Amino acid sequence: MVAAAFIGPGTVTTATIAGSSFGYTLLWAVLFSIFATYILQEMSARLGVVGGMGVGEAIRQKATGKGLKIPSAILVIGAILVGNAAYEAGNISGATLGFSEYAGQLKTWPVNPFTLGVGALAFALLFGGKYRLIERSLIALVSIMGIVFIIAAIAAKPDFGLALKGMLIPSIPSEPEGGWLMVVGLIGTTVVPYNLFLHASSAKKRWSGEKDLPASRSDTSISVVLGGVITMMILIAAAAVLQGKTVTSASELAGGLQPLLKDWATPVLALGFFAAGISSSITAPLAAAFATSETLGWKDDLKGGKFRMVWIFVLLIGIVFSTLGFKPTAVILFAQVANGLLLPIVAAFLLWIMNDRKIMGSHTNSKLVNAFGILVILITIGLGLRGILKAAGV
After folding, report:
1. Residue 148 and residue 153: Cα distance in Å, rounded?
2. Rounded distance, CA 336 to CA 327, Å?
3. What was the pLDDT predicted at 24?
4. Which of 217, 302, 340, 389 could form a disulfide with 384 if both were Cys (CB 3.0 to 4.6 A apart)?
5. What is the helix (H) or strand (E) element at residue 302, kind and residue range?
6. Which three-class secondary structure state does DSSP give residue 339?
7. Which residues are CB-contacts of 355 (< 8 A; sequence separation ≥ 6)?
8. Between the CA of residue 21 and those of 122, 153, 229, 287, what are the distances in Å?
9. Neighbours of 71 (CB within 10 A)
């Protein structure tokens, strides 16, 4: 579920542009993002398994004073609920991106049936309220993404020597410009605040007690590494076939693979885009529902009325915006600022609560994990400032 959440259309596009612009040199940023993501996601999952609570619930219990309770609730709801609603249109549109060549005859239609189909599929899985079914569906989608993009990377016949060098030796080329921003973008598409809420809540539902901690850690390792490998494969494929070319979207990767995959290039990539888009179209509303319900003290039952109300709102906003082609610039601007503030705050909060023996018992953080956690928080502060400055146009 975690891998499905952070490999969305935004990640696919960012990795494609990174590979086409900078070749293999920024693979180290993806490797670092895997490390940073694991540190935070492991803490989040441990909170759910051992502490028996989600991140939103923990914030509500710890932030008891009015000076903290109301601002923290506003920040969480603003960043996760409003933010995911604004970004949901991109997830749904991204799922249909690869099918644009097959939709020529549909341009005169008032509504794109592909968009409605993606929305209906996401609605059906979420409304069923069966956690295991949702989880298995996302596993299938992540598997499809992995297979598609690994095939794309191998078919591109990359220089694995240069790829290994780019992975292990950090460097930022002076040309073209924007290397630092691309590094931050690659890390920022992976280390995202809503994944922390989603992971703790889903871990709480799947496991219970310290006996399940090894299984949770194994699951986290596989999820984060798999997501990182998929991102690397996308970047490697783009570096091999598109380096030096001006690329504005991931859909252009299909054109670069046509000499290698022939007529299969477009349908293969379309399948990958669909898996990335539909998986994020499911996890974004789900994360928003978990975060909002826990922060406000509602029951986080997948079949609960208030829980469903939240994810239906997020999904419907995404469908409407995607169908109308409307870009809610002001809402996205607010969401970027809120997420920029929320990420380091939630990371710091996790570090704080994971050292609370009343909640975590003997499973508090070790000194090494705390040191890594502080390093990641400093990085997330940088990411937050970058997101705020970008949103402000600075």
Report:
1. 9
2. 14
3. 94
4. 340
5. none
6. helix
7. 364, 365, 370
8. 34, 16, 19, 33
9. 12
Give the other-Cβ count within 10 Å of 331's Cβ: 16
Structural contact between residues 277 and 95, judged by C-beta atoms closer than 8 angstroms: yes
pLDDT in tens, 66-102: 677 788 788 788 778 887 887 888 888 878 776 665 5
Whether 33 contacts 186, CB under 8 Å: yes
Radius of gyration over every alpha carbon of the chain, rounded to an integer in angstroms: 20
pLDDT tens, 99-117?
Answer: 665 555 556 666 677 788 8
How many residues in the chain?
Answer: 394
Q: Please list, in sequence order, all residues whose beta carbon lies within 8 angstroms of the beta carbon of residue 234, skipping any fewer than 6 positions away.
A: 11, 12, 15, 16, 19, 149, 152, 153, 250, 253
Nearest to 92 by CA among 354, 274, 328, 291: 274
More confident residue, 5 or 235: 235
Predicted confidence (pLDDT) at residue 145 exceeds the cutoff of 80: yes
The DSSP annotation for 121-156 comes to HHHHHHHH--HHHHHHHHHHHHHHHHHHHHHHHHHT
Q: Is a pLDDT exceeding 60 seen at residue 328? A: no
Helices (H) and strands (E) in the chain, counts: 18, 0
Q: What is the CATH number of domain 2-289+298-391?
A: 1.20.1740.10
Structure tokens at 388: 């705020």
Mean pLDDT of the chain, nearest integer: 83
Residue in the block written with tokens 């259309």: 9
| Number of other residues whose CB lies within 10 A of the CB of residue 87 | 26
Distance between CA atoms of residues 196 and 37, nearest Å = 9
Structure confidence at residue 208 (pLDDT) = 84
Residue 230, helix vs strand vs coil: helix
Question: Considering the entire predicted model, what is its pTM?
Answer: 0.85
Peptide bond into 176 cis (omega under 30): yes
Nearest to 197 by CA among 306, 298, 53: 53
Residues 321, 92: Cα–Cα separation, whole Å: 10
Give per-residue pLDDT as tens, 48-66. Answer: 999 999 988 888 887 776 6
Q: What CA–CA distance (Å, rounded) separates 102 from 82?
A: 32
Helix (H) or strand (E) holding 375, with range, is: helix 367-391
- Amino acid occupying residue 8: G
